[in-house]
């Protein structure tokens, strides 16, 4: 069999990637709606929401192993023809989501006041943030159940239903947010707390749909719904590596924001504009990575030519990532004089934006390949390698240049040079790993270590 026979039709990659993109974009888009609604209450509630939303976002960013790790494990089992066991991964991930979510509620309620006070500098902003967090934290288990649901359903190559479930939950939140915040008719509404209630209501709907799908699939496959400690331990081992990797990202971006603010408001604003565009294009590249996770995991779990198919898929999705990256780079280069004024009319900010912009545009092809190979290695369950190399790239690449830019007054040039070096280190790491074939471990379950 030739390489061509191992090649997957592009429409199969698109079938998985296309629904994944709106799922990834749903939460950021909802936050824009939430911000616009709360913004009409005034500066203090909006500032309180900004502080509280950053804190609550750590739930999804630090615990996304419930999605990515579950996809990797479920995809292998699905590729091996063991769909019932793949659904069983979803059952155990959901139990884990509920348990961790309850811990988040308890700990969050205890630390909400001191953390919000520290970030919000005390006073009215901290009070507003705490009032939102006290309610929103009850949605933590629901958010984590949704992550687990996305994980096992992607593993069995079903990305259409998660799209419907997430849009249903976020749609309810968006519709109810305005009414709960500002009221209707003679009712004055609940103010900022109404936003948190709308969040929890939408999360309840989304999590309920995922739970219903899981119970139906478990019954159809004869999968018990009880806890299985051995599976939970394996999921936690994979989660440990993914959490460490996520913390490396957080340390880098928080350091960059802290340093940017020390160069003045114009530099901080310019950094925020370019960084948000970076996060936006990352959604598209991440959709390809999610397709790679599911397909590579299934290939490695398959008893027939699993290694050859996985390697062919790795080459294929890497080409797709490169094409997307080159396209993004050309697009953002062409829009360099058009897009920044959409975000701000401030001439001081616009004067600084090009310093970061050209780093951002030039990095797109690198990012396209890195995200694609990240998806391949995550699908292979090679999380330990990704953890180690991401931490190394942060410690050796990003963070030294970030803090050197503060010490030597390099401004945004130093910050974005650090991000560029971080991405180049990651490109080298994932590229060497992909060429080595050490990630190509076949079987329904990847051995530990």
Automatic annotation (TrEMBL):
It is found in: Membrane. Keywords: Membrane, Transmembrane, Transmembrane helix. The chain crosses the membrane at residues 12-31, 93-112, 132-153, 165-190, 196-218, 242-265, 277-300, 320-343, 355-377, 384-403, 409-429. The keyword Transmembrane helix applies. Its main location: membrane. CDD domains: MATE_DinF_like. Pfam families: MatE (PF01554). It is a multi-pass membrane protein. NCBIfam families: matE (TIGR00797). Belongs to the multi antimicrobial extrusion (MATE) (TC 2.A.66.1) family. This is MATE family efflux transporter. It comes from Pseudonocardia xinjiangensis.
